[in-house]
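A student in our group prepared the protein record below, which I am reviewing. I have pasted the whole thing underneath without changing anything:
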Amino acid sequence: MIKIYLDAGHGGLKNGRYTTSPNKQFRHKEGGFHGGGWFFEGVFNRALVAEIEKRLKEYNTPCLVVSHPTDDITLAARVKRANDDYRAIRTSTPFALYVSVHANASPTHTARGWEVFAFNSTGQGARVATLMGEEYKKAFVERFRGVKQANFFVLKHTVMPAVLTENFFFDQIDDAQTIWREDVIKKLADVHVNAINKYIDTIV
């Protein structure tokens, strides 16, 4: 009935090297993180996507990770993989959803919180984003930055509804220490999967 496309934003670790360097990383003065105080966004994104994928499979919900295990492939390549796969199966699987997972950063390194984006304020992507916002507020109560609209490539160019989540700020020490915890990654996965399940309930 539905297939979920998961995108762990940016790159990961390859032979001990962060493939997105020098971008999408921050070195904190405290905490070990991924080594020497460095927090690599793409590595966190993959940990969260892996947990979401695990949970979806427990619900027998078909899913495909469109990002590369380590390399920082282009946005166009990620979207093309999802679009091509969905076009090939859409006669038997009429619904699909693209979920792009990130952690945030700010110029001042002081911003905190969680937010979710859709391409516009209407349509199925906006519906899923609203559901994710509701699930976040249940799980974390505070630092909800809202459901927003953006012209991000992955939101604009997918042939299926799409959302993009920004899961706290990896360049702010308190947020970084929060999302470093395994139990928080599991809670964030719950936010995503619970919202996806509620969305599925509305289309079956």
About this structure: The chain has six helices and ten strands. The domain at 2-203 is CATH 3.40.630.40 (Aminopeptidase). The chain has a mean pLDDT of 97.
